[in-house]
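[Automated response] Your request has been received and processed.

Submitted sequence:
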Amino acid sequence: MNVLDTLRREFNGRVAFRERRPGVVQVLAPLFHEDGDMVDIFLDLADGNGKVRISDHGLTLMRLSFNLDVDTESRQRIFTRILSENRLQEQDGRLFLETEPDRLYPAILQFAQTVAKVSSMQYYRREVIQSLFYELLEQFILENLAEYNPRPRTLPIPEHDEYEVDFQFDINRRPLFLFGVRDNAKARLVTISCLEFMRRRIPFKSVIVHEDFEAGISRRDRQRITSASDKQFPSLDDFRENAGQFFAREASP
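Generated structure:
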């Protein structure tokens, strides 16, 4: 019994095969993307090392590019992590997984699950947005608040780099210390930093930009950071909408 016969039995007959060219077979199986499209799966059977290569022949990244390009460092990092966690590889835009013939059925299921995860916009956008929060915040500041001369990663207490400020704006008698916050750990660090600056009588005004003030940090950390800070924007969208007006007021005599 060859590998295709074995696969047909393991799929309980719910699979079909189409030969695309000698040694390359497309697998038509009930494995789908979230939108209902069938996952593209090809078997390269003519591998010289005795293994079978399961591949998408480049169709996954092509599909993804219709809505999202993996064109930034953070997006590439997420994409690479998804592949490595599931033992897939990528070459010239093609995703593939090599397996022994007797492990072909579970390998196909693993391959299909990973491909669906890569191309799922709901999953991918959520992960990208979370990972890109600080990058998007920095991009907005440098592009839209450049007139206020933002200085990234400053150290109000030079001998303590744990109290680093994400951006400093020297636009009035008291500089603005701006922090981006997306989770409890950063909220606690910002709270501690602001309290330490106050303890040392460093003149400043703190500005906090949250990824999601309500859902991103716990109730206790919301209370602590609210007590320690001067101004908070509950989301990046809120900051984008209102930062210009806020900074204009701060810069006025």
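Summary generated for your ticket: The chain is about 45% helix and 20% strand. The domain at 132-251 is CATH 3.40.1350 (Trna Endonuclease; Chain: A, domain 1).
If you did not submit this request, please reply to this message.
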